[in-house]
Amino acid sequence: MDRITTLMNRFHRQVRAVPAAEADLIVLGSPGAPKEVCFYPQARGMHRTTGSELWYARVDWAGGFNPLQRALPETVHFDLSDSPETQALIQVILQEHTVPRCGGRWVLDRLGDVLLVRLLRDQINRGSAQPGLIAGLADPRLSRAIVAMHDHPGRVWTNQDLATEAGLSLSRFNELFAEQVGETPMSYLRQWRLTLARQDLEKGDRVDAVARRYAYGSPEAFTRAYRKAFDESPIATRNAGIAVA
Question: Which residue spans adopt a coiled-coil conformation according to this UniProt entry (predicted)?
Answer without folding.
Answer: none
